């Protein structure tokens, strides 16, 4: 059986890919994809820690992750709606041009 | 209330309006301003006649004093904080109104002739109208405050008119002297007014029993005493009398009146003979109830049927001042050579008689002389003006002579005035009024000295008037008359026509009778000077009864036989004839010494003559005492101002400047610099920090990621430690 460290390394790798995508890409949709990747890395961590815990027979971990995936789906819908709103407003999805958050 | 009582204010306001209108008129509108002034005076005169008729009608009924009061201003809440003014119509007012407007109208008409050549004709009539308005205001005032306001206006116009020819230094100085000298009396008068207000709470004379001249207020004032044991009413009375002393030229404030003759002659006649100087006498008559209060009066009041006594400490002072002035001024008049100055001293002397009459005999005695004097003295001044005009501004009586042939109308009217002033019996008004004063003085219970002073004054009066008339109108003409060089220059100033314009063939050339506008007023005044005496004879004392608010009975010659009236009349007639005879002996008869030689009086007693010629050296005395003290005091004040107060001010200024300099340095180099540096630092740090806040979400996310890494590393190392 693959040891815990393997899952954790895979999860960290996934997270790093997601973070890099979210930080470096200019397209909002790619950024959203990166964010989803980071979320799934966290879910993978969750599952791994649950599977290697002292009482894996209680399905707490898997329940948590299923909920998180549900929430993530809703969040993705909200995020896409935001992107559409941004596009309608700015006529672009390039995040370098969307900088009205500054004071 | 009758229409005339309500609208009494029209009488003074009309001339004032005329003054205002002609003040706006340009200089060339001569006819306009003269017409306006005379017209307003005539209307005022007619209104005065209405008022007089009203007063005449109400004599004998209740309420001879009709008043109209109104609230002028509120200065505090309640009844005590209301200042009321008003006017009063009583016999005293009515008589004065008619006199002032009538004499004023005549003098206005005369002025059109006298001032015809003056370039400031409109200004003259402006001032004259303003004076008339103010004087009428004094007459109708029912409030001491209103009276004082008009009183000061009268003083102002007097100043303006004395200094009318202000380019003459002597006229400017005389105007200043008149103003300042009367101011001394007015300050005391004002103190008296304030005190009276403090003591009685009102300045209205008559206010249905609430006025300060009515019994309740008087009883209150006479019961209180000041520090020296004098009743408050007496002290206030004397302070008010001080104002009258200044205005009426009584000793010791008489010095301004002779100098006031620098003004045009109609001004001398109207202001400094007939009306304004009589305002002092009028004032005493107006506040007579206050003057006549004493402890004896208070105790007489308590009796069931009071017979109020005449005489009080204040009236005693008034009598003495008047009697001394009467003789004092008459004696100076003997040694003067200026035709107007003689009349000025005569005015001072006659005002003294009036004061004496008020003091010894009451309102009616003094006022009767005031009225008759106003007419004959205005007549004399206008006559003198006619003489001066005819002789081209010659005023020295030693340089005149023989004018009775050249100026017959002036001579005849002047003679009437002179005889009235001397008090020649029966047909001249001055006789009756002066005799009444002497009669009252004879019966005065305090002292007989004022009576003898008055009688001596009558002798002197007859003497100096005879001297003047003899010098001016009799004997032969002075060779220089009408062609003098000095007076020619004055003629140019006055604007008179040069002598050559009048082709008279008789000697001296240029001396002429005055125009009709000047002689007609003279004739009217002469008639009045003769006839007016008959309204106040002992047989028919209409004037006296009218002023006292009673009706006069029929003609009653039996009055002559009472209380030694006839002997006194005979005695005073003898005195007058002695005076005239002496004057004629010295100056008028054929063998008398020539006018440009040594004066006969000087030959007789040179020491006395020098004393009189120099007016008892009163001016010099004032120069050496009051004026020198004033100069010294001014120097002290100047020193205090310059060195002491100036030094203090300079010190304060320097300290302030030094302090503010220190303040500026602290501001600039400490506070501002510190703030500046703090601001610069803040701005720099802020711009550095704002690099993160560029509004791009990825930058924020990157920062969060970096912070997370740092946090994780810290946690790892922290757990290990």
User: Can you tell me the overall shape of chain A?
Assistant: elongated
Please give the radius of gyration of chain A in angstroms: 17 Å
Strand content of chain B: under 5%
Q: Strand arrangement, largest sheet of chain B?
A: 1-2
Q: Stretches of chain B where pLDDT falls below 50 for ≥5 residues?
A: 484-507
Number of helices of chain B: 29
Query: What is the distance, rounded to the nearest whole angstrom, between the alpha carbons of the first and last residues of chain A?
Result: 53 Å
Provide the fold topology.
The complex is a heterodimer of chains A (103) and B (721).
Chain A: H1 4-24, H2 28-51, H3 60-90
Helix pairs in contact in A: 1-2, 2-3
Chain B: H1 3-6, H2 10-24, H3 30-58, E1 66-74, E2 82-89, H4 91-114, H5 121-140, H6 144-162, H7 169-200, H8 215-223, H9 232-247, H10 256-259, H11 265-274, H12 276-286, H13 288-291, H14 295-302, H15 313-334, H16 339-361, H17 363-390, H18 403-406, H19 408-422, H20 429-442, H21 449-473, H22 485-494, H23 516-531, H24 542-547, H25 565-588, H26 600-604, H27 606-613, H28 618-689, H29 697-720
Antiparallel strand pairs in B: 1-2
Helix pairs in contact in B: 2-3, 2-5, 3-4, 3-5, 4-5, 4-11, 4-17, 4-23, 5-6, 6-7, 7-9, 9-12, 9-15, 11-17, 12-16, 12-17, 15-16, 15-21, 16-17, 16-20, 16-21, 17-19, 17-20, 17-23, 19-21, 19-23, 20-21, 20-25, 21-25
Task: Summarize the structure in words.
- The complex is a heterodimer of chains A (103) and B (721).
- With 103 residues, chain A is mainly α.
- Chain A has helices at 4-24, 28-51, 60-90.
- Chain A has three helices and no strands.
- The radius of gyration of chain A is 17 Å and the shape is elongated.
- Chain B is mainly α and 721 residues long.
- In chain B, 69% of the residues lie in helices and 2% in strands.
- Chain B has 29 helices and two strands.
- Chain B has helices at residues 3-6, 10-24, 30-58, 91-114, 121-140, 144-162, 169-200, 215-223, 232-247, 256-259, 265-274, 276-286, 288-291, 295-302, 313-334, 339-361, 363-390, 403-406, 408-422, 429-442, 449-473, 485-494, 516-531, 542-547, 565-588, 600-604, 606-613, 618-689, 697-720, and strands spanning 66-74, 82-89.
- A two-stranded antiparallel sheet of chain B has the order 1-2.
- The chains are: A mainly alpha (103), B mainly alpha (721).
């Amino acid at each position: 059986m693959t040891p815990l460290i393997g899952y954790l390394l895979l999860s960290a790798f996934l997270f790093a890919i997601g973070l890099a995508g979210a930080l470096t890409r200019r397209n909002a949709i790619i950024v959203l994809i990166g964010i989803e990747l980071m979320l799934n890395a966290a879910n993978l961590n969750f599952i791994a820690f649950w599977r290697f815990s002292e009482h894996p027979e209680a399905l707490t971990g898997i329940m948590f992750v299923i909920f998180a995936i549900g929430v993530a789906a809703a969040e993705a819908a909200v995020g896409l709606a935001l992107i559409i709103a941004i596009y309608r407003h700015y006529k672009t999805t390039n995040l370098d041009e969307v900088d009205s958050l500054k004071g | 209330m009758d229409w005339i009582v309500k609208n009494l204010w029209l009488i003074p306001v009309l001339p004032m309006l005329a003054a205002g209108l002609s003040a706006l008129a340009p200089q060339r509108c001569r006819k306009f301003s003269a017409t306006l002034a005379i017209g307003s005076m005539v209307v005022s005169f007619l209104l005065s006649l209405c008022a007089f008729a009203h007063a005449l009608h109400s004599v004998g009924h209740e309420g001879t004093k009709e008043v109209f009061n109104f609230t002028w201003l509120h200065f505090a809440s309640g009844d005590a904080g209301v200042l009321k003014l008003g006017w009063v119509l009583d016999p005293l007012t009515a008589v004065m109104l008619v006199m002032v407007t009538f004499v004023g109208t005549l003098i206005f008409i005369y002025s059109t002739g006298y001032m015809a050549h003056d370039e400031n004709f409109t200004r003259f009539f402006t001032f004259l109208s303003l004076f008339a308005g103010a004087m009428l205001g004094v007459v109708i005032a029912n409030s001491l405050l209103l009276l004082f306001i008009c009183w000061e206006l009268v003083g102002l116009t007097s100043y303006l008119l004395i200094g009318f020819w202000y380019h003459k230094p002597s006229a400017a100085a005389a105007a200043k002297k008149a103003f300042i000298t009367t101011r001394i009396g007015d300050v005391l008068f004002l103190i008296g007014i304030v005190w009276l207000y403090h003591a009685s709470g009102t300045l209205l004379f008559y206010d249905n029993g609430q006025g300060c001249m009515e019994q309740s207020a008087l009883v209150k004032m006479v019961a209180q005493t000041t520090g020296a044991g004098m009743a408050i009413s007496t002290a206030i009375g004397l302070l008010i009398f001080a104002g009258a002393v200044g205005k009426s030229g009584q000793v010791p404030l008489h010095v301004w009146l002779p100098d006031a003759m620098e003004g045009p002659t109609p001004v001398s006649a109207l202001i400094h003979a007939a009306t304004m100087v009589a305002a002092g006498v009028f004032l005493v008559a107006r506040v007579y109830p206050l003057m006549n209060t004493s402890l004896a009066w208070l105790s007489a009041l308590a009796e069931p049927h009071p017979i109020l006594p005449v005489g009080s400490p204040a009236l005693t002072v008034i009598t003495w001042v008047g009697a001394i002035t009467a003789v004092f001024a008459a004696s100076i008049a003997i040694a003067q050579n200026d035709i107007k100055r003689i009349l000025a001293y005569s005015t001072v002397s006659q005002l003294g008689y009036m004061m004496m009459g008020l003091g010894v005999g009451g309102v009616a005695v003094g006022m009767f002389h005031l009225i008759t004097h106003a007419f004959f003295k205005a007549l004399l001044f206008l006559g003198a003006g006619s003489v001066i005009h005819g002789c081209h501004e010659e005023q020295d009586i030693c340089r005149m002579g023989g004018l009775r042939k050249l100026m017959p109308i002036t001579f005849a009217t002047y003679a009437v005035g002179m005889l009235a002033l001397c008090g020649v019996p029966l047909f001249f008004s001055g006789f009756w009024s002066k005799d009444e004063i002497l009669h009252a003085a004879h019966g005065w219970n305090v002292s007989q000295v004022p009576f003898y002073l008055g009688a001596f004054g009558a002798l002197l009066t007859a003497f100096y008037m005879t001297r003047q008339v003899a010098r001016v109108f009799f004997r032969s003409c002075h060779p220089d008359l009408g062609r003098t060089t000095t007076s020619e220059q004055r003629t140019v100033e006055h604007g008179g026509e040069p002598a050559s314009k009048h082709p008279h063939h008789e000697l001296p050339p240029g001396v002429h009778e005055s125009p009709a506008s000047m002689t007609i007023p003279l004739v009217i005044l002469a008639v009045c000077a003769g006839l007016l005496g008959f309204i106040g004879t002992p047989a028919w004392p209409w004037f006296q009864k009218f002023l006292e608010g009673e009706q006069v009975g029929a003609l009653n010659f039996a009055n002559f036989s009472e209380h030694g009236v006839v002997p006194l009349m005979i005695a005073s007639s003898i005195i007058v004839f002695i005076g005239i005879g002496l004057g004629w002996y010295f100056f008028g008869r054929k063998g008398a010494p020539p006018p440009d030689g040594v004066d006969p009086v000087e030959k007789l007693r040179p020491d006395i003559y020098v004393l009189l010629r120099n007016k008892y050296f009163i001016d010099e005395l004032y120069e050496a005492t009051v004026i020198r003290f004033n100069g010294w005091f001014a120097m002290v004040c100047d020193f205090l101002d310059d060195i002491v107060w100036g030094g203090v001010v300079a010190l304060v200024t320097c300290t302030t400047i030094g302090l503010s300099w220190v303040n500026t340095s602290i501001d600039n180099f400490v506070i501002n610099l510190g703030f500046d540096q703090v601001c610069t630092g803040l701005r720099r740090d802020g711009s550095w920090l704002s690099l993160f806040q560029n509004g791009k979400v990825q930058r924020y996310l990157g920062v969060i990621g970096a912070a997370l890494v740092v946090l994780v590393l810290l946690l790892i190392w922290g757990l290990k430690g």
